[in-house]
Structures are given as structure tokens and as C-alpha cells.
Amino acid sequence: MTVLILIASVLLGYLLGSISGSLVLGRWQGVDIRTQGSGNAGGTNALRTRGWRFALAVVVIDVGKGALAVWLAMTLVSALAVDANPMVAGVGAGLAAFAGHVYPVFFGFRGGKGAGTAVGAVAVLAPWAILPMFGVWLLTVLATGYVGLATILAGLVLVPTIWWLGPEPVPMALVVFALTLAVLIVFTHRSNLARLRDGTENRFEKARLLRRRR
């Protein structure tokens, strides 16, 4: 029974994660955002190609599905009063939702990079980590204009934040979640790292405050 509940949590998380905000909304408008801009089905590309209203709706959906996946999994375990740990179920569902966003079964396994969905999962599993992550993300964007770099650093800062600001003792499930999510975010943003290395990464110039003087 316990194993079945955990499997159901992971499956539910993956299916929710596969509901890509930009691709669902794009279908309503008769466009596939994967054919525009960077080709990524995420919030940043949505902002650049479709405008802030479209991008905001995408972010709400992507963050919401990550949070919903974790909450449903933890609630399911608690309601059924099985031996499974709600935190473990939530971690499984959150990571599965991330995987679903990156490789959505409903959209040919071509999705986004998972940042919004990751934020939603973190908001339920480790809400104290949201502010430090957002602070690092915002400072990086303002300083460099590189959204991809900002997302990578925000993902990496999750690991020490779990240790320093989390409960004592830190649940092992949360440690696994933070480490796994940080690695996955770096992996899904590997193309951004390659472009940074080559000097071809796009900047979000409107948000960049520290600009080189000419």
C-alpha cells in the first residue's frame, strides 16, 4: 500500500508537470512557442516573444503545478494515514513535476527548463528557501542581465539554505530534494552555460542595472 501511494504521487506529479503553461496557452492562440525565440517552452522565452501578460500566465501555471503536485501528494499520504512519509511523497512528486515540465508527455517530451515548477515545489516543501533564492536570482539579473545564470545560482543556493535555515535536524528527504534539484537545474540550463562560455548568451538588458560605461 505504501509503495503504491508513493508511485501514485510520482505519477501524479509527472502528469501535472506535463501541463506546460506556455504550450497550453500557445495552443489557444494558435502558436507553438517552441518555434519562436530561443525555442524554450518557459517563462523567459514567453516574455521575449509573446509579451508580459502571456509570460505572467505561464509563470502562474508552471509555479502552480509544482506547488499543487507536492501539496496533493503530501495531503494524500496524510489523509490515508499510511506508513509513507508525507515529505518523501512530496519530494517525489515535486521532482516528478520538474521532469514532466522538461519532458512533457502531452507535448512530445519537449518542454521547458523547469525553473517555475521548481519554485512551486520549493514553496511547499521548504518555503523559507524562497526569499534567499529570489534574492540571489534578482541580484544576478540586475547585475548581469543573464536570466539563465541567475536561475542556476538560485538553484545552487537552495542547498546551503536548506542546511542553514531549515528545521533541526534537516529531513534527509529535503537534503536529497535540494541536491537533486540543483543538479537538474544546472543540467537543463547547460545550453545557457555553453553560451556564457562562448560569449553569445542573451542579456535581459532592460533589467540590467550595472552596465558597462562607454
Task: Write a concise synopsis of the structure shown.
With 214 residues, the protein is mainly α.
Please tell me about this protein's structure.
With 214 residues, the protein is mostly helical. It has 2 domains: 1-125, no CATH class; 128-214. Helix content is 70%, strand content 0%. The protein has helices at residues 2-17, 21-28, 43-50, 52-80, 86-102, 115-125, 130-144, 147-165, 172-188, 190-198. Helix 3 packs antiparallel against helix 4 (52-80) and helix 8 packs antiparallel against helix 9 (172-188). The longest helix has 29 residues, at 52-80. It is globular, with a radius of gyration of 17 Å. The chain starts with a helix and ends in a 16-residue tail after the last helix.
Please state the structural category. Answer: mainly alpha
Shape: globular
Quaternary organization: single chain
End-to-end gap: 66 Å
Q: Structurally, how many domains make up the residues?
A: 2
Number of helices in the DSSP assignment: 10
**Strand coverage percent:** under 5%
Radius of gyration: 17 Å
Average pLDDT reading: 89
Characterize the biggest β-sheet: none
pLDDT < 50 runs, ≥5 residues: none
Percent helix among the residues? Answer: 55-70%
How many β-strand runs?
0
> Which sequence of SSEs, written as H and E, runs from N to C?
HHHHHHHHHH
Give keywords.
single chain, 214 residues, mainly alpha, 2 domains, 10 helices, 70% helix
What topology does this entry show?
Blueprint lengths: L1 H16 L3 H8 L14 H8 L1 H29 L5 H17 L12 H11 L4 H15 L2 H19 L6 H17 L1 H9 L16
Helix pairs in contact: 1-4, 1-5, 3-4, 4-5, 4-6, 5-6, 5-9, 7-8, 8-9
